[in-house]
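Hi there,

I know you've been waiting on this one. I reran it after we fixed the sequence typo, so this is the corrected version. Both the input and the resulting structure follow.
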Amino acid sequence: MQNSFRGGRGDRGRRFNSGGAQRSHFNSRRAPVAKSINPSRFINKAKPVAEEIPFQPLHTFADFNFSPALQSNIDAKGYVNPTPVQDEAIEPLLAGRDLIGLANTGTGKTAAFLLPILQRLVEDQNSVRALIIAPTRELALQIDDEFRGFSKGLELYSALCVGGVNIQPQIRQIQRGPHLIIGTPGRLKDLVQQKKLRLGGANVLVLDEADRMLDMGFIRDIKFLMNELPTQRQSMCFSATTVPEVKDLMNEMLSDPVIVSVRRGETNDHIEQDVVKTTSKDHKIQVLHELLAQPEFEKVIVFGQTKHGVQRLAEKLSSNGIMSEAIHGNKSQGQRQRALNAFKQNRVRVLVATDVAARGLDIPNVSHVINFDQPVTYEDYVHRIGRTGRGGKRGTALTFV
């Protein structure tokens, strides 16, 4: 299969100003700037069920006129009525419009952009090629899994391009000419610079979790990739939070976009939020053990600030009979995926993680999120606690102060 992502330089989009000489993507990233967060922002009562007004979608999935094979895959997943972001975004995306999607975490953004892309590919898989950029390996892998589920039997193929694993299998995937490439900014940039990936034929672009990519210092890498894309394309940008830098990026990459905003507030209405007061590091660990011993703490993500601290905490919990796995940046992609799978499959009930697990991961039935260490920014807090209370279910978030 010919690699349709290739295209001549004359078809590239306008050049983005990356703010000076291009640097290695390792040097261009910056850590988030610490901001003092008032503990009162960690307290919020979940809205009682009686006060909630049930969402009434304007469409069912059958109303979007997807191809019969794609609709069959949607039905097989049990999808009948779209979530608010899906209800508002799918129709304009099917019409080819650029789009800004603002929605709380856990509200179905991935299907909102994947299904229109799949429909375009079904209609014309020879000329349509899509690029999805995500901030973390785990989110990219999750998007790829969703794509494979929705594209079953459609003879549509993806390539997953993320760091932390051998680049050679990814190069071979690209050489086979996939319809969709899903990747993290740094690895995608590496592949372009090595001339293994050409983006001149990518006429659909998705930027997922845009705010997180800017937090992680990916702005130079993203603008580098934008300059490799054709001018004529459909672009969509999804984010759970907005900051001025995200708005500037959206203005540069989108043309007359439809704006879909279904954010109900800074955090999910279904999440009970509270603080837990502790007096020392030893006291924090004691309190954590006492909480995890309670039966209602069925499936828990514990967030810490440092890679070494997260690893030590997971080992300490396991040695005390609370089986735990750790996920952080010092682990290989294979180790991280094995830890996630053990947690998803209920072989352990506690996942101890840095903010690498704070964005995009869709793990069913997480009962509690515990911020053992406070997040650096409130935006990080929003995304951490968004791992619970997903899909309309209840969740609880506790922050140690």
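Quick highlight: The CA atoms of residues 102 and 261 lie 5 Å apart.

Best,
R. S.
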